[in-house]
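Suppose a classmate hands you a notebook page containing two proteins, each written out with its sequence and a corresponding row of structure tokens. How would you begin to make sense of it? This section walks through that situation. The first entry is reproduced here exactly as it would appear on such a page.
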Amino acid sequence: MSDKGKALPDYTDPVLLEALTELKAVFNDGISEYQLIKQLQQPPWLLFDGVELSEPLAMFRCHFVLFNALYSLSEAWRQQGLGELDIHTLNIRLKPATAYTAGVTGYDGLKAYYLNWDNFTDTNGADIEALLDDFWQRMAGRNLPPGDVAKARLTLELDTDGELTPAELKKQYRKLLQQHHPDKGGSTARAQEISQAYRILCGQHN
């Protein structure tokens, strides 16, 4: 059998699936990935406890595990006619289910990526730099309201309307992340805000 025809191993955390099912109502109005992780860290779930989201590899692994579960759950809900999830880092929202016909639905590259655990195990710290430049940018929200872009610029301590090259953006991001890294006495919340603002502004350069 070809690699394409082989079933991929499924390591999706059943506890995480249960938690997301219990939290289904939060997807009606939409919720950001960051907000969802914060809810999952609270009782009774206590998931992703101790994960250092300001550390790039830890952030990627947390993100991958969550999105793997979201795509798995979305597919199950879709097949059951319960709706499906529109999944983006800045907004995860439940929408009406499309008609399910086995083997007929279109190819979803992101879904395929997150359901393949090789992409989790094969990604190391050296790969994250490229992911921040490429993969995260394609996932970042596009056509955002001007207020969101302005807020992201303020978070990164940039002029609100000045021209900005990708190289300048990355340099400022690295500078602030280093200053506010929790290991150097900074705030985890501030480091997370910096990372999210960077992803927002990356999307404006695509």
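The notebook's second entry, a different protein, reads as follows.
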Amino acid sequence: MARQSLREKLLDAGFRTIWNSGYAAAGVRDIVAAAGARPGSFTNHFASKEAFVGEVLDRYFTYVSGLVEAALAQDGTPPIGRLRRYLDVITSKLEAHDWARGCMIGNLSLETAVHSEPLRLQLVAIFERWRQPFAVCIAEGQAAGDIAKTFEAEDLADFLLSSWQGAMLRMKVERSPEPLERFKKVIFSTVFAKEPTP
């Protein structure tokens, strides 16, 4: 079996450290110590902490993209059911961390967008890519008459992601699933509802 490279160990340790501590509090020394590496090894693999966090962010988005793909898969479930399935999957993962962790993309958006232009631009690109599969699913629901066509599918996908991030922020503050469940109740009875019949 091939040994895991030091670079991968650092990325794994950084992933965990940033999850637990956030960007500002996750020092390079902490990451190196968590990886069981020697001091100075970090700079042999990464140009800066900012570049390192960019790679951690890419790794996290790959993970999230897998969840999106599985939840929105065209398996005979109507589009509304697939959208709900995604939110329910994420809810179960948030519950596993006692409603305290949230989403790394959202967390880093709050923490780094003001201080790091490269990370801000990376986050912009991630949100653009993130909303696409939701827009496809929503457009399918609109074509079937299950979702009103009042707004473009891409705008609704953007609204879904932005509002869900807000619900997760409230969840972390309250340490409760109530903001998530409230969000789901409202969005599926308003935004993702059929066009009213005349």
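A careful reader of the second entry would note: Residues 100 and 172 are 5 Å apart (CA to CA).
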